[in-house]
Amino acid sequence: MRHADVNKKIFLNVHVDDILLVCKSEDLQWFQETIGATLTMKVDGPHRQGSGEQLMYLKKRITMREDGILIQPNATYVPKLVSLLKVSGRRRGLPYHATLEAFSPEVALEAELLDGEQAATFRSGLGLVLYILHGDGPA
């Protein structure tokens, strides 16, 4: 979201009860006075570009670097994924499915379908991967 007043450069990201605000100091003060009048807020910051400071937002570590902002996923997710998929210590490459390019759901073999436990593991693993990839790398 961006404030309608073109003189205020306030960029806001809201996820349930977590708010990430990017703005100038005077706009931060306005936000705290205006929004803080009706909502109870816990403030962490301000964090300035290039300061090297770190903050956590939605379980992601955000580092204020000189060359940009580095967003990293929670450090526990990769080990959790390795454990979930039971791939610890493997040194093999990725498997290749020769017919993947020609997959057709109409000819899916019953024997290849995941059972309930395998489907739950797949969904959990996929959720972790999507969460890890969403915030990885410099912004």
Structure characterization notes:
- By secondary structure, this protein is of the alpha+beta class.
- The chain has two domains: 1-46, no CATH class; 49-138, no CATH class.
- The protein has helices at 25-35, 77-85, 116-134, and strands at 11-15, 18-22, 54-57, 60-65, 68-72, 137-138.
- It is elongated and about 65 Å long.
Explain the layout of strands and helices.
Elements: E1 11-15, E2 18-22, H1 25-35, E3 54-57, E4 60-65, E5 68-72, H2 77-85, H3 116-134, E6 137-138
Antiparallel strand pairs: 1-2, 3-4, 4-5, 5-6
Give a nutshell description of this structure.
By secondary structure, this protein is of the alpha+beta class. Helices cover 28% and strands 19% of the residues.
End-to-end separation: 18 Å
Portion of residues in beta strands equals 15-25%
Radius of gyration: 22 Å
Principal-axes geometry comes out as elongated
What structural class results from the helix and strand content?
A: alpha+beta
Order of helices and strands: EEHEEEHHE
Low-confidence stretches: 135-139
Cross-sheet strand order for the largest sheet: 3-4-5-6
Q: How many domains is the backbone divided into?
A: 2
Q: Please give the number of β-strands.
A: 6
Helical content class: 25-40%
Helical element count?
A: 3
- pLDDT average, as an integer? 79
**Largest beta sheet, briefly?**
4 strands, antiparallel
